[in-house]
Protein 1
Amino acid sequence: MAEFTDSKGNAFIEEGVKGLNPGLIVLLVVGGLVLLILAGNYALYMYAQKTLPARKKKPVSKKKMKRERLKQGVSAPGE
């Protein structure tokens, strides 16, 4: 802080920067948390891709297999 006098002789004190705006602090904290959550989710996703086994496909029903064979023109066995 510095003390100055104007042309009339009145003394006044010039205040320096008071610090960061509280709104900016809240924005930085919330933004940091969002980035932290996103980074954590990505890390968990990559870990799961490497460690979990591949999903098993559902077995095709006999009815569907028969229908597909008929579409292709191959007769189903036993008919």
Protein 2
Amino acid sequence: MSGREGGKKKPLKAPKKEQREMDEDDVALKQKLKEQQKALQEAKAKATQKGPLTQGGIKKSGKK
């Protein structure tokens, strides 16, 4: 019945992962993904320049 045992136990620290060296295939894949991400960002920027696609809101009839 020790006062030190109560509460949350601290998790053990996980060992650090070793850095593995990247070969040519990994470098090429990373470059390809980076280019795709850049193209996607450019497409988003172009799409937002045109303005909203819908002219949303409540349509009013001419009657009162």
Protein 3
Amino acid sequence: MDNKEASHAIDALTPAASSSDHSISTPQKMDNQEASEAIDALSLTASSSTPSTSASQMTLEEKFKIVRSIGEECIEEKELMDLLAKKPQPVCYDGFEPSGRMHIAQGVLKALNVNKLTSAGCKVKIWIADWFAQLNNKMGGDLKKIEVVGQYLIEIWKAVGMNLEGDQVEFLWSSKEINSRAHEYWPLVMDIARRNKLPRITRCCQIMGRSNQDELTAAQIFYPCMQCADIFFLKADICQLGMDQRKVNVLAREYCDDIKRKNKPIILSHHMLPGLQEGQEKMSKSDPSSSIYMEDEEAEVNVKVKKAFCPPKVVEKNPCLEYIKYIVLPWFNEFKIERSAENGGDKNYKNFEELAADYESGSLHPADLKPALSKAVNKILQPVRDHFKNDQKAKDLMKRVKSFKVTR
């Protein structure tokens, strides 16, 4: 496939930003407080009521600030602004391997991010990467078990409050979609593979939870080429994934350069929450003490938070503070500390900067912060517990998932 053929093939898979020629006017100015309020209004506690501003009523800058707020990094911001100006409903791609129980970062952060994207008028395609989990030897490569895990994960997002009304969120199973359009998918995978040397592909192995030093199977070497192809196959304008998926998203942009394709997928990489123990840069499903699972009981959450690494006066790389910054504050728009008068009395934080300053100074102690964090997390998780207790289908799915042996 030469450059021109490849570019035309992908153009057929990915619609142009708009069929009409829009000039991009300077967006209406919005001050920091207005932007903050627009984003805060999208917390899941607020999403039970109809938002006061629909996507069609938002200014370009309002949409940009909401979408951009998801990413720790954006490649490139100007391209994102142009896309939002030209296309009424940009397509955002997110994906996951059904590989075991869901921890709070995957459950809550994804729900928050999806709700922000749909509020700004985006369509979110969530790729249930069952074939990819099989390639990566998850659940022992048993596709039937992988499917059960995928169904369980969807039940969690429904229960926690992901806004699935209308058609703005679409769950797609990779095996079914690829089989139904194999004539489009596999030539694209082959062209990406042909244009990249093996060292470039193995540098992407982080997307599978692997390192460059791991002994990879042939299937795992093929994996990055397929994930790169997914972006074009799903007609994605934005890749909305974690920082650990950054390398393969950059590979997709480089592929566009190779085939002389102008419109590149925009990369919006969200923050990765650390594990609860010291030195854990990422949550680990193989270590139950590393993370809080979405259907953990209240007592389990309390124990995990109590044992979590949380050194006094240290803000940097403090997992408890990261939970507050990226989960609790976006969810409730506040963080409540309850303590006796002699210990400073109750305090209600509305932003992370104020909380971090108090913690660093020592006026907020871990002994007061941890119980407040446990209480907030348990409040978030209670609807999920209720769903898996009262819904028979969900209960059966969870029982089966807990019985599966996690493999890697």
